[in-house]
Amino acid sequence: MIRIRLKRVGSKKKPFYQLIVIDKRKSNKSKFIERIGYFNPLNTYKINNINVFKKRVKYWINLGATISYRVKNIIKILKL
Length: 80
Fold this sequence. Notes:
Elements: E1 2-8, E2 17-23, E3 34-39, E4 50-52, H1 54-62, E5 66-67, H2 69-78
Parallel strand pairs: 1-5
Antiparallel strand pairs: 1-2, 2-3, 3-4
């Protein structure tokens, strides 16, 4: 089972997240299949705080990947 979810890579009190494709049974700390974007919640410019490779997201969804709750909200913002 494949899942698209966020992986926190930022330092303390400075969150930064990567959108990754990973096996659902593995933890976020383990090796992932593919990095498909990033999310920076601290960036004040709303345009540059989310970067997602839209073609790769659609590709993984077509293969049957499930999406986490937070990533669904990010995709809604981008109108994919």
